[in-house]
Specification:
TIM Barrel, globular, 8-stranded parallel beta barrel, alpha/beta
């Protein structure tokens, strides 16, 4: 009995010893400020620092920790297509509550998906869920946010958007703000956080790393939609970091009081055209303008329109040939 007790005790001790986690080695902080003492860091840099002398954020030399690797290639096909001179087309998705609908559009042949937020009720939670359901579909995730805002842009990009469309940009200050929140330092002020974008299943495992390469891969499109936007179009298009300007076909009519074909309307569109050409930026509009000179990126119709169009194409002569009862709710009115 005593022998069994000794064996049992030894086994328990062995089990406890085996299950105990190994202690993590203590971290060392050789350049840390001494405990409880003023290190004088504001006035003097530690040995080996690039930025010497009193701290001055205006003169700060940004480090190379987040540089893209030398020779890094573009991995966003939407950005690459624009750089190659192709016509970039985004299919619009308004209802993202069902990821299957989003993924059907993302695999329908578009270059990117124009996920609609400005004029649709979708939440960021449902948008993120749709994007991560089929991240490597043929069309990369894009979004038109509601307005120029840090929270909106941060949610869009942390969720994995590779094409960012900002509506109703009226001033050069708004354009600069959009760039600030869209790009990581040193070009912008995007905060480094988490989200879909950093997941290896999305962009976390791209060559060179997401944080280090996304600034070169993002497509940023600013929409000019108002008379104020037209007044400032040249300055808006000239802001570094802006990939393209979008001549908003509906709202430029809405804000000008004219329709397509009217000389005053066409003048408004041409002002946006000229701003893009002078700044060396891409010019965007509705897909109906695919043959309009110098337009190279487009918004196509939404999922509802495409269902109808697909049905007409499939049915041909059988489209809308339902029987017409003489009575009941289906009888001709």
């Amino acid at each position: 009995m005593r022998y069994r007790s000794i064996v049992l005790t030894s086994c328990v001790m062995l089990l406890v010893t085996s299950a105990a986690p190994a202690a993590e080695p203590a971290q060392s902080f050789p350049l840390a400020a001494p405990a409880g003492k003023d290190s004088n860091a504001r006035q003097a840099a530690p040995p080996g620092a690039v930025n010497q002398g009193p701290f001055d954020d205006a003169k700060w030399k940004y480090g190379n920790a987040f540089n893209a690797p030398a020779g890094a290639k573009i991995w966003n096909p939407a950005k690459l297509k624009l750089m190659q001179g192709g016509k970039l087309v985004g299919g619009t998705v308004q209802n993202v509550s069902d990821p299957n609908v989003y993924c059907a559009m993302a695999n329908a042949g578009y270059d990117f998906i124009w996920t609609e937020v400005q004029h649709a009720p979708g939440s960021w939670d449902s948008i993120w869920r749709a994007w991560r359901t089929c991240p490597h579909a043929g069309a990369v995730p894009g979004v038109r946010i509601s307005y120029t805002d840090e929270r909106e842009i941060q949610h869009a990009l942390d969720g994995g958007a590779l094409v960012l469309v900002v509506p109703t940009v009226d001033t050069v200050e708004e354009a600069r703000e959009a760039v600030q929140w869209a790009y990581f330092p040193p070009l912008g002020r995007r905060s480094l956080g988490g989200g879909n974008a950093f997941d290896p299943a999305m962009w976390g495992s791209v060559p060179g790393g997401y944080r280090n390469t996304i600034n070169d891969n993002l497509v940023l499109i600013l929409m000019i939609e108002t008379l104020a936007g037209l007044r400032n179009a040249d300055e808006i298009a000239n802001v570094p970091g802006v990939t393209a300007v979008f001549a908003a076909s509906s709202d430029l009519g809405n804000f000008s009081g004219y329709r397509q074909g009217d000389p005053d309307y066409e003048r408004a569109i041409n002002i946006v055209h000229d701003a893009a050409i002078k700044a060396g930026k891409k010019l965007c509009g509705p897909w109906a303008w695919k043959d309009r000179p110098d337009f190279t990126c487009f918004q196509a119709q939404n999922e509802v329109a495409q269902i109808g169009r697909g049905a007409r194409a499939e049915l041909g002569d059988a489209h809308n040939t339902q029987a017409k009862p003489e009575v009941g709710p289906f009888a001709p009115k």
